[in-house]
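Sequence in, structure out. Go.
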Amino acid sequence: MDGTSLRAVRIECVLRVLQEAIEIIKMSLILPKLLQEPQKLRQVLEGTSYEEILKPVEDLLESHMTRMGSELTLPIDHKTIRILDYFQKNYQIYKFFPQLMRNLSDRDRTILVSFQVLLDIAKEHLYRSSQSEISKERMLHEMYHKNEDIRKKIANLRKDLATRRVMEKWKMAAKGIYLVKVEDDLAYKKWQNNVRIQNEIEKCSRAMRINHSSSLEKQKELEEQLQIAKEAYSKLTDKHLLEEQEARNEKNKLLLQLQSLVKKYDANIGDVMRENLVLQDQYLVAKKALDSFMVVYRREEAIYNDIVVQREEEERRRQQQRLVVFMMNRAASKIQKYWRKWRKDQRKKNKRLKKGKKGKG
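Output:
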């Protein structure tokens, strides 16, 4: 076996020992809780390959456990050490109690994390080789050169920044001069605007005085027109009052006439109503007579309608007979006419034939 293989075997052995140590620590952390709950321990391990430890644990707890204050303690004797050794050798038992592992205290978790960190550090140091160290040195060398380049760039940037600051100061000075000039221009323009505003104020004042005088004249003229309108309104009001009085008198006169007409109507309405009652009685008598007459009339009308229908049927038959006779006579005359014409044509034809025969002879 060469040196590299031997080193790899040793590394694996060391890491396995460290890993087993972490597993044993996990078992040791939950072991006090397991001993405090022997029933749960039996419930979980019974039927497994680890149930042989159940009876020694129960015997130990029954014979040697004493209560001191609020804590449970076990005597350090041969049985206790054997039980502890059994749990540490069979550290896989902790995997049957995931709930206890999840409920570890912060101190216990810190212990586990510390050992895990130690394991990771051991792996890093054990697996470290000369080639990896050389690679790290090269990386550090490259990083050093990069840092030097960055420092140079920072120095150049600082120089550029100083130059820019100087340029900015010059620019700020130029801007200050420009601002002074702009302020002077603004002050001059402000003075011009003030002068223009003062002139406009004077113009507006003159215009307001002119408008005030014209408005006074207009107001005086409107007051005169208002006085004339008031006088005209007063005259018109008097006229309307007079017309209203005349209309009221006419209304009273018409009301008196209406009352007399109403009285006359009341006097005549009785006679009219009596006459209307008499006419209604006469209407009822006439209606009864009309009803009896209508009964007779409808019966006679039915008889008349039957007679009319019979007459119409007879007249229709007569017309049809006349039409048939007319058609027969017309057909006979047509036949005779065609017969005579045919005989005449035959005679003419025979004569032509005879003349033809004589000419040939």
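Check: Residues 67-71 have pLDDT under 50 and may be disordered. DSSP finds seven helices and two strands in the chain.
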